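Lesson 9: reading folded outputs for more than one chain in a single document. The general rule is that every protein is listed as its sequence immediately followed by its structure tokens, and records are never interleaved. Here is the first one.
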Amino acid sequence: MPQPPAPQIWDISQVLRPGLPVWPGDTAFASAPRWTIVPGGSPVNVARFETSTHAGTHADAPLHYDAAGAAVADLNLEPYLGPCRVIDARGAGRAITADFLAPRLGQGPPPRVLLRTFDVFPHDAWVSDFTAVAAEAIDLLAARGVVLIGVDSPSLDPETSQTMDAHHAVRAQGLRILEGLVLDDVPPGDYDLIALPLKLAGLDASPVRAILRGLAP
């Protein structure tokens, strides 16, 4: 019998590279060779790199917004793996509110929700006036059984926020966060998400390789 086609895969990760836009004042990505293959010398290439824990597509750990929160190496991986829904949230304005999100969420969403806000993801320039997420929208997601929120913007809260209202709503509700997703080519709908953070001891976030898999028909 013919085999069913393999599910389509969307890579929704940024490329970690020199020149990658990062939060103003944060550590820029840099890399350099440590050993290089040469005749009679090293038989291998080995490189080193430096980056922020929040570079590119990344998972925030509770330690990022809670001094007593868990580090990324200590997190349960279950929220980062499983059914999710991609929602087109373009046109929300400065922040995605509960009123904006509710009719797009439906009555029974999967436990992971990813929100697209950019018409075209800004791969080569930092955008300061990105769309944030209101704390009330976080509360709505939690009430609907959502355990992870993902956004294509670099943060749930505005760049100038000092109160971090959305992050603290996430803390209060026990959700997990993905930021910096690239959702340009992903139609709204339901998928399987795989976006596992690295096991970095004592750190507040981790870059992830995030992918979506199409659901079996």
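And here is the second record, again sequence then tokens.
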Amino acid sequence: MLPFTYALRNLFRDPTRLAQTVGGSALVVMLLIAAVALNQGMNSVLSASGSARNVVILGKGSEESIERSEVHLEAESIAATGIRGIDEQLGVMAVSGEIFYQAPITTASGIENQALLRGVLEKALLVHSSVRLLEGHFPGPGEVMVGRLAHRKLDVDAAEFAVGEKVFFGKAELTIAGVFAAPGTVLESEIWFDRNDLATLTQRDTLSLVTLRLGSAEFDDVHVFTLQRNDLELAAIREDKYYEKLSIFYQPIKVMTWVTAALVSAGALFGGLNTLYAAFASRVREMATLQSIGYSRFALLVSLVQESLLATLTGTLLAFVVAYLLLDGQTVPFSIGTFTLTLTPTVIGTGLVTGVLLGSLGTLPPAIRCLSPSIPQALRSS
């Protein structure tokens, strides 16, 4: 076998080719890291947003969209009394009638953007158990409570959503009374109103949904209740199943992310292969000379793969550094919330495997072509 230092020295024979190989592999690995992180981030936030213990009661025919749903106001109290086995805390039933609305919100600096609004009463904290108040208090009349990532949804500075700041919904001026966290869920991107305020501002006399938390009851009990009350025109779905359906709805976006990454990666990959073909073609006589003094074709192939692996793994390391500085911890807004990009072990493993495959399997075609001519023919080549 050739010494490892031989591959290392050859790596720096052509700095331009080295830069192209490192840059191309870094681009391919970076794109795949971004694609995996985006898909994982969206999947994780949607899967974490729903609880298997929560059941959402919606208007019949609106099982796939909370925003389109309309539920009679009395459905909240009827469900609380008509379904046995609902969770109860300190004598209060874990049943929360809510209004869900998407509309423009204007900050004190005049920036206007679409926001996710949820009209709630304090009972909402009994069903949304992941919500934790970070500062301030639950909103009362004329007040709102914002998720800690709501400013990212509106693309404004976090200081504009601090406690005591003002926001505007239409002509109504509202004071931010509190900031809450709900780690890993879409709730962190929402703005919570007092339910009566939001009903007045949107001129609604109906709810969007009723969320209840199961105690000893099962989903079938809630489903039977909706079938018995045909007059209310209700449908029930488990909260985790609702967000699972949303994940399927966003599948085309995930596919487009992969397609884009694959197309750009293919361009970089073919460019890298052309560079390797050109580089190895100029070394046919060198490889023949080494064979004539006793080195086998396999030993030369291993040396060429080592040389390529050094370049591609350097590019992989560069991609990890760039991903850590630019991607890790970044929040990405989408239609129903935001999600965070994280360099999880799966993401890192995908990038590392990609770098290894680029340097090994990607090197084989040009290396085999370089070593395939017979020794006399290769020595005569120019």
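What the second record shows: The first strand starts at residue 54 and ends at 59.
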